[in-house]
Structure formats: structure tokens, C-alpha cells
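Both lines are quoted verbatim for reference:

——
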Amino acid sequence: MKSYLTVQEILKRKHFVTSEVAAGKEGLHKPVKWVHIVEVTQIKRLLKGNELILSTGVGWKENEQMFISFLEQLIECNAAGLCIEMGTYTSKIPSEVIAIADQHQFPIILFHQEVPFIEITQDVHSLLINQHYQMISDLENYSQQLQKMLLIIDHYHPILHFFYQYTDLQVIIKLNEENIQFVPEINPVKRKELLNLISRENNDQKVMTKQIIQVLTRNYAELFVVSPYGQLTEFDLLAVDRTATALAQHFLRDLYVEEKKRVDEAEWMTKWLIGELTESELTSYLEEANVKEQGCGAVVCVCRPNPQKRSVDFTYLKMFLKTLFEQHGFDLFVIERRGDFILILINKRSVHTWKQRIEEGFVRFLNTDYCKRQNFFVHLLGIGKLVTNVQEINRSYQTALETVKVQEKLESNTSIHFYDDLHMYRVLSLIQQPKDLREVMMEYLEPVIMYDQQYNGKLMETLKVYLECNGSKQETAKRLFVVRQTLYHRIEKLEKLLGTDFMEPKKRMAIEFMIMAYDYLFSKTDQISS
């Protein structure tokens, strides 16, 4: 599988049976790409390299200095060796010539009998031509097998292993600085040596070659091939080129499949976000995504990138976040929409701990080296309202967008913002936009209203008076004409319905505003349906 012979192989031909290697035995492995008969001494401009020179010595005869000059020109031109017919013009080889040839591992071969130079050139050239045709045939066979392989494989590793089996050369593929693979695998010491070799700018191109694998004009990977046996052959280099092309085709197909999958996934998730999926369609998509638990609620997070951000590897980011939030009890879906990264998290654990777990997950993410290097978030995260039914994810999405919008107008020391914690800022936002005040009011007061309707618990009245008394239990009990034990029971029920933090300043202010909205929107005789 090479288009040349070595000097050693040529010495086995019939015309060389009685020849003698007088010098440069260490260079018998050198490749021979052509044979020339040369009888002139100024040949520096006539040679291209790897020629085996046949000569009678008529050019230098017994002139030792001219002989040395001729030899040095051959060595400088990277000739493969020198064959001399002894007797007619050359009777002996000077010791200095032998020393120079040995020093440069340059073979000098002597014919002690007259030999037909023309027949030698015909014989060797016929071999070289036949080998070249054989190489083309082998290369075509290799290419055909590669193309067949591309139809059935689902990973690039079989291509690299096939190349290795065909050529017995060390293969290294570099997808990025962290992902460098060797075929076959080698020990750490040898691995370090090869990494040093491929990292050098002026490395030995005879034993190593490098191919840039381009996919859609992008440098997708680097393929290195190193020969442990000396110089790479022409077949090796052509096979590397075919292999790089096959890898590019495989990577392109992978990118197309991934992009198609990503587009399809983005399409149904966008419909999910804007509320256009039917329940059966959503159930089917979630089952296909292997999401089994849907009864613990779901929430949307909007991540708004920095306009000055560097490009982000979306696939890596998605995999990273999925792995992270899986550890915190969520199934995660990620899409890009209108310049935002949208995260849909389906809760798989207790509803009471969802906020804490989401916050812990994002804190971990923001503190990773990856996130600090990228630095691609500004307002960073707006986390919407938890919805109990995944079919209503649009509500959570809208509240996440509102959270980001509110935070854009604020200077905050924190980067993680929950819709549930905005309170009066939501009210201020509401004033600036046409929105149903009743809907926001019901978000805060519906649990209390519904409890009163069902049990006649007088919790709304208790809440109003308790707030008016600034949380004084003694004054509240006095104004309501109830004993303290009854008041404590009602306050405990309010904490369960509104949250234990309902008396904290910001939330309390929002609740007081919503009570005023309630009194404004509904008379005492009005009934509020669920």
C-alpha cells in the first residue's frame, strides 16, 4: 500500500544479486520513488528527492574532491542512494566518501561487474508503476468500505478503528482541548509524548500528518496520524484525507439530526409555553421524553443573556443544567426563545421545598467555573409561579417574564428572583399595564375567600383587623370579640393559607393592597366563584 520501494527491497532484484553495500547501511530503509542514470557532477537542480542514482563515475573519475562534492549534492537533495559501476572509471571509493555516507546514512552500492543500467531502470520503474496502480486500487477499496460504513454507524469511533486496522498507524482525534482520543489507546507515558509531538509547530512531517476536519466552514475537529515505523507513505496520506472526509460527513449528519431534533423539540415546547398543546399531545411528548412524574407541579425560569455575551454552546449548557437539576429533583427542558434561555422544570419531590431546591441549583450553577468564564447573564434569572398542572405552564411562563421585567427596573444585589417574592413590585407593574386586577387579587386572597365560603371561618375579617392592629393579638381579639385561643387558631389557619411570611413587610403591603382591591371590586353581597 505504498507507491515506492525501499533501497533494501531493490537490492533483492536480480540485477543487484552481486552488488555490495559499501556505506550507509543504516539508510537502506529510505524510499525510492524513481531511478536516474547520472554522469554529470552538477545535479543539484535536477533532483526532486528519493531518487536512486546509477553512475559509472565518469563525471568525477579519480578526482576525490569532485566525488565528495557530487555526494554532498545528493545528500542535500535527499536522494535515496548511489549505485556505482566499478572498474571502467572508478577503481576505489575514498575513505572520506565512506565516512560522509555513513554519517548521513546514505547508501553507496557497488557493482563489481558490468550491469545494464537501462534494464535496471525498466525493472524498478515497472515495479513502481505497478505499486502505484495497486495503491490506487487499495485506496478505492478503502474508500468504498468507508462509504458503506457511513450508512450504518452511529458514532465516529468505527471510522477511526477501521483506519487503524487498515494502516496500523496511531490515530489521534482532537474535538477540543478537553476531548482528545487515541486509537488504539496507549499508556500515559506514550500518550504524553504524542501530545507533545502534535503540539509542536515545527514537528516532523515525515512521521506525522494533521488534517483539519471542517463542517459547514467550521473547524470541527483535528485528526492526527503518527507512524511508528518511520516515514508516512503516500497511501497513508491519501487514506488520512479520505478518512477526514468521511468524518466530516458523519459529523455533518450528526449535526443535521441534532438540529432537526432540536427544531422539533423547540416547536412543541414553544407550543407548550404559549398554551397551544392539547393535554393528550403534551402527555405524549412528556412520555417520549421519559418524564413520568407530573403531579408535583412545574415552573418556568427565564434567563436573559447579556447582549455583549460570547457565543454559548447551547448543547453543552443544556446537558450541564439537566444533570445539575436532576440532582435537585427536577426534570428539565431548555429552549431558546426571543433571545432568552427558557427553562421548564417539572418538580419530582415535595412541593414545600421546590423554591429552596431551585435556588440551591442555580447557586451551584452560577458558582461553577464554566458560568464564571461565560458570564452571559445580566438580570440572570426570573423564576415564575409554580403551577400544579403542567398543562398550565403558560401561566408560569408569563409570571417569569413579568419577574424579569420588574427586575430590569431594579438594582438588586441578588441574581435569582422569584415571582412569589415580588409582592408590591407586582402591584406597581400592574398599574403600568392593562391587566385583570381581580386575577392578581385572587392569587393572594383566594385561599382565604374560599375557606370562608366553605366553612364560614371569618378569616378575611380576622386578616383585615389583624393587619389594622399591626399584628397585635391582644388588640385584634378585643376588636373581634373573640378569646385569644380562637384568634390563635385563626392566625395559624391564615399562615397555612397565605404562608408563614404573610406579615413580612413587602408581602404584607401587597396583601393590604389586595384587601383594598377586594373591597373595591366586590360588595358584601357579591359572591366570588372559584
Observations:
- Residues 437-521 form one domain.
- The longest strand covers residues 218-226.
